[in-house]
Amino acid sequence: MDQSARGVATKAILQAVSSGKFQPGEKLNEANLAATLDVSRNTLREAFATLTVRGIVTRIPHRGVFIASPGVPEIHDFYTARSLLEPAALLWGEDLDIAALDQIVSTAEAHLAAGETALVADTNQEFHRAIVTGAGSAILDTTMEQVLAQMRLVFLTVTRRHPEFHSDYVAVNRKIVAQLQVGDRAAAAAQLQQSLLATREKLSTLPLDRRLH
């Protein structure tokens, strides 16, 4: 087994999920996906095995491989992990790029003003990814890539019914950046943790369709 090819395939599928190219519950066509990624079907199956463990895909006997549809227990776990990881990156991240975070929020504000809700969601994901990148750890970057892929599946489900879901977070992110700009990392971390935990509770009350299509 070509470990490098499996890793490339796994990462490519993760990135596709993170960018919203797949929908929760979508069945994956093994032959087409192997051709798109230019890997063998055996390599793709090994990638599927890795992604199954990570909660990105689900294999159903005699039916195939499907993109996962996270439910309330998974969402609670995602946000618990994020409420610990992201504030820590704000507090102690050695590579935190405040100017880059400021630019990301400015982009989100422009999308919000233009009514581009899907792009607001994309930019919000970018903001949180940049926070973890600021920790300066490749291990945490990989962890966050997986978490954001799983979160994308949550948001694709939620925004079908609540397209404005991400809009309120633009102001929260602006406040976090403002606190960072005056050197108050502790306040920024506390603000972020409060927001993540509040979102965890909000999402736990929303009905989620977990059916596989």
Describe the 3D structure:
A hairpin with a 3-residue loop joins strand 1 and strand 2. The model has no long low-confidence stretch (mean pLDDT 89). This protein starts with a helix and ends in a 9-residue tail after the last helix. It has a two-stranded antiparallel ribbon. It has nine helices and two strands; from the N terminus they run H-H-H-E-E-H-H-H-H-H-H. It is globular, with a radius of gyration of 18 Å. Helix 8 packs antiparallel against helix 9. It is mainly alpha-helical and 213 residues long. 69% of the residues lie in helices and 4% in strands.
Uncertain spans = none
Distance between the termini: 31 Å
Provide the structure class.
Answer: mainly alpha
Share of helix, binned: 55-70%
Described by the principal axes of the CA atoms, the overall outline is globular
How many strands appear in the DSSP assignment?
2
Mean pLDDT: 89
Beta-strand content estimate: under 5%
Strand line-up in the sheet with most strands = 1-2
Q: Give me the Rg, rounded.
A: 18 Å
Largest sheet: 2 strands, antiparallel
Q: SSE order in H/E notation? A: HHHEEHHHHHH
